[in-house]
């Protein structure tokens, strides 16, 4: 028995209290009091001593004597090694305020079993630093001790559960002779100790639920914080904290805290670039900042230059005995052979995210097996979920996967895999795009692809979800000389592209298809894609002068070929370009000539499109009555001519929209409202936000003019929401002014 323990027992006896009565009076458990009196635990800290003094009713002098005994016992124990001590805290810790607050609130909730928090996420996110930070902040709340144990869950041989229990029990000063023999008994013993003592356990780098479950407290006020690269979804009743990379401003703050060069306000842009190259990953940021801090001659710009080289970025994010690639490799080593193959082959994916279908194409595995493999990568923090059934790499992990691919597969295999993926993406894109094309609108006979869209909605969903991937595949096919495939993809997108007419990527698609068509012998095909490129320059990139020039070049070639249909389309696109450039008279004349040529060529789809160009030109010239008449003529022609479904829907929406605007400009508000409400279902079916925004704007203004002010607000708000692109600024400002008038 220690002198402190003897003195505590004397004071308890003098007060006439049993251990249980002192426990009730002080709030310190009877088990803890017993351990202190018998010398089986360290002398308590100040808060615990104060609680005991209150329970014993000690005078200040007596408390002072007891504190002296406690200090002496602690000093005598100072030379002995202390087990499970917390690692050194990080003085320049940045961010994670929300996560720390969530864990503090969880620790203080005081309901149900002992609180457990699981901090999980990919390598390098600072999970350990966060847990240690929390322990340091809550130090005074846990007088029973702060214990840290690295479970080495990413090692080939993680810490055995029995060994972990032994270390924790010894750290809690349970005598060696009292420690039970079996794991189950030790787990029960640990729970009993933690129930009676208020401790905080940091169980770092857990490898599995089975490893960590026996180490958790069951009752009482102890807190366990578990960190893991895995989600540990089998643990029930825990608070899960999913870490993500730091916010950009936090990344910059961390770099400035580590390196004096980064603190220079003049280097703000370069600091942001370093943070981006580090993917806002705390480990990478800390390494980058340390390299900068230990090289006084370096500037932040010098570091940016080094990190800009993607092939050397991981090598540059290494210092001393730590490195980003090393951290990733620990998780990679735990993968089975199929998951390793999947991981490295996902480096072929050109876009930002992907689905299990693409993983299946890359490996040749069954779709269900590919999905299981993706889940394994997510569980180890090597992939991130990116929405329902979609996944993405962190930028640095993508580079690591690329290194593994180059090191583990020969060039021929890599090339064959990349081409298989590219061909699948482009073939599927053609099938999806043709749902919107005249003469198609269904799956090819006998189609057995992994993706089988059952209609326009599913086709659109796939094309949008995989846009960055099929675009990347299109670039690859262009570089590889697959010219006809490039042209076929662009052709399949012709009418679909109208649905997203303001999207700039169509300029690249039709730029690639024009260049590819120029390499093929069919000049009629080439002029078609020159025309498409003119449309993209005018409508998608907002370059009407370039669009007109391209269209005139297409017209010249079409005349040489005697292709009346493409002459008409060239004039139609030139008319659009001139109108967008502000030359309405010239645009109108071109559309009238295109209308004549479409009629000669028997191109009914083109005819109604040119007639719409005429209506738009007349309206822009302020001849609203003529424009309205022309729009109704378009609607009549749609019924009279065999216009294909998608072009007919496009023409119907556009005709109604032009008519509503002309009616509104004429002050015919009641008619404008009827026309706009009639057009809304067609515009919703077509799916182009610009038409919907224009119609809601007209509806709102018409209701205002007709005195239906309360009904006007929702439509005007919808117009503001839909007309958000820069090119709609005038119409958006009109909607905002109208809302302001409503108060």
TrEMBL record:
A molecular-function term among this protein's GO annotations: ADP binding
Ranges where the HTH cro/C1-type domain occurs: 8-63
PROSITE patterns (alphabetical): HTH_CROC1
Superkingdom, taxonomy of origin: Bacteria
Stretch list, region Disordered: 61-81
Protein name: AfsR family transcriptional regulator
Provenance organism: Actinoplanes awajinensis subsp. mycoplanecinus
């Amino acid at each position: 028995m220690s002198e402190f323990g003897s003195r505590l027992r004397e004071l308890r006896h003098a007060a006439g209290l049993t251990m249980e009565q002192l426990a009730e009076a002080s709030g310190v458990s009877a088990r803890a009091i017993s351990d202190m009196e018998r010398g089986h635990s360290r002398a308590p800290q100040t808060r615990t001593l104060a609680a005991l003094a209150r329970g014993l009713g000690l005078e200040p002098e007596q408390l002072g004597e007891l504190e002296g005994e406690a200090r002496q016992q602690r000093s005598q124990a100072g030379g002995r090694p202390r087990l499970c001590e917390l690692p050194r805290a990080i003085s320049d810790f940045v961010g994670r305020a929300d996560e720390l607050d969530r864990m503090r609130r969880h620790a203080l909730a005081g309901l149900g079993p002992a609180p457990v928090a699981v901090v999980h996420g990919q390598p390098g996110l600072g999970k350990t630093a966060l847990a240690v930070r929390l322990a340091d902040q809550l130090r005074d709340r846990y007088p029973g001790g702060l214990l840290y144990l690295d479970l080495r869950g990413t090692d080939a041989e993680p810490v055995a559960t029995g060994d972990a229990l032994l270390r924790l029990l010894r750290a809690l000063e349970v005598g060696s002779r009292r420690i039970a023999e079996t794991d189950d008994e030790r787990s029960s013993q640990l729970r009993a100790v933690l129930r009676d003592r208020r401790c905080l356990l940091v169980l770092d780098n857990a490898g599995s639920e089975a490893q960590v479950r026996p180490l958790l407290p069951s009752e009482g006020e102890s807190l366990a914080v578990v960190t893991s690269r895995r989600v540990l979804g089998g643990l029930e009743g825990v608070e899960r904290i999913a870490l993500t990379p730091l916010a950009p401003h936090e990344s910059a703050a961390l770099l400035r805290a580590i390196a004096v060069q980064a603190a220079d306000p003049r280097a703000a842009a370069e600091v942001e670039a370093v943070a981006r190259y580090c993917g806002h990953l705390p480990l990478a940021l800390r390494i980058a900042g340390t390299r900068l801090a230990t090289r006084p001659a370096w500037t932040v710009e010098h570091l940016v230059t080094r990190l800009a080289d993607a092939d050397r970025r991981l090598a540059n994010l290494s210092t001393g005995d730590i490195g980003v690639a090393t951290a990733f490799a620990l998780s990679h080593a735990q993968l089975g052979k199929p998951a390793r193959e999947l991981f490295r082959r996902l480096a072929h994916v050109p876009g930002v995210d992907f689905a299990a279908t693409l993983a299946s194409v890359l490996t040749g595995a069954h779709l269900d097996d590919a999905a299981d493999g993706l889940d394994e990568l997510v569980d180890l923090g090597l992939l991130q979920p990116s929405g329902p059934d979609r996944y993405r790499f962190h930028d640095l992990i993508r580079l690591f996967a690329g290194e593994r691919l180059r090191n583990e597969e020969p060039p021929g295999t890599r090339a064959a895999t990349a081409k298989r993926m590219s061909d699948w993406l482009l073939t599927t894109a053609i099938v999806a795009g043709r749902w919107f094309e005249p003469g198609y609108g269904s799956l090819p006979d006998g189609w057995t692809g992994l993706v089988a869209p059952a209609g326009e909605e599913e086709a659109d969903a796939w094309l949008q979800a995989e846009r960055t991937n099929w675009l990347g595949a299109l670039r690859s096919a262009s570089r590889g000389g697959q010219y006809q495939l490039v042209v076929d993809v662009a052709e399949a997108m012709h009418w679909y592209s109208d649905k997203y007419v303001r999207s700039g990527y169509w300029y690249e698609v039709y730029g690639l298809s024009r260049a590819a068509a120029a390499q093929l012998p069919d000049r009629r095909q080439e002029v078609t894609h020159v025309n498409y490129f003119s449309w993209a320059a005018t409508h998608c990139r907002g370059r009407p002068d370039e669009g007109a020039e391209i269209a005139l070049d297409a017209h010249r070639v079409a005349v040489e070929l005697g292709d009346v249909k493409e002459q008409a389309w060239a004039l139609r696109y030139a008319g659009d370009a001139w109108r967008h450039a502000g030359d309405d008279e010239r645009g109108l004349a071109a559309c009238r000539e295109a209308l004549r040529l479409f009629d000669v060529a028997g191109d009914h789809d083109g005819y109604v499109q040119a007639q719409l160009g005429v209506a738009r030109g007349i309206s822009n010239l302020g001849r609203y009555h003529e424009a309205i008449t022309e729009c109704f003529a378009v609607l009549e022609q749609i019924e009279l001519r065999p216009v294909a479904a998608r072009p007919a829907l496009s023409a119907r929406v556009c005709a109604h929209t032009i008519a509503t605007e002309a009616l509104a400009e004429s002050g015919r508000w009641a008619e404008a409202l009827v026309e706009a409400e009639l057009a809304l279902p067609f515009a919703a079916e077509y799916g182009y936000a610009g038409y919907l925004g224009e119609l809601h704007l007209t509806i709102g203004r018409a209701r205002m003019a007709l005195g239906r002010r309360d009904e006007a607000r929702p439509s005007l708000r919808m117009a503001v929401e839909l007309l958000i692109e820069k090119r709609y600024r005038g119409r958006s400002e009109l909607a905002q002014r109208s809302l302001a008038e409503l108060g």
